[in-house]
Amino acid sequence: MTPISGRYGIAVLLLVLLAWIPVTFLAGPGRDHDDCLRPDRFWDLARAPGTLEVHQRVDRLSETRIQWSEGSAVPMLTRGARFAYRVVRTFDPYYMLVRPTAVLPRGFAEDWDRVEVLETAQGELPVRLLFKGHGSHVELIAYAFFYEGKPVRSPFISLLRSALSSFLGGRHPLTVVMVQGRAPSSEQGLIADEALDWIEGVRGHYAAACNP
Question: What is the pTM of this model?
Answer without folding.
Answer: 0.81
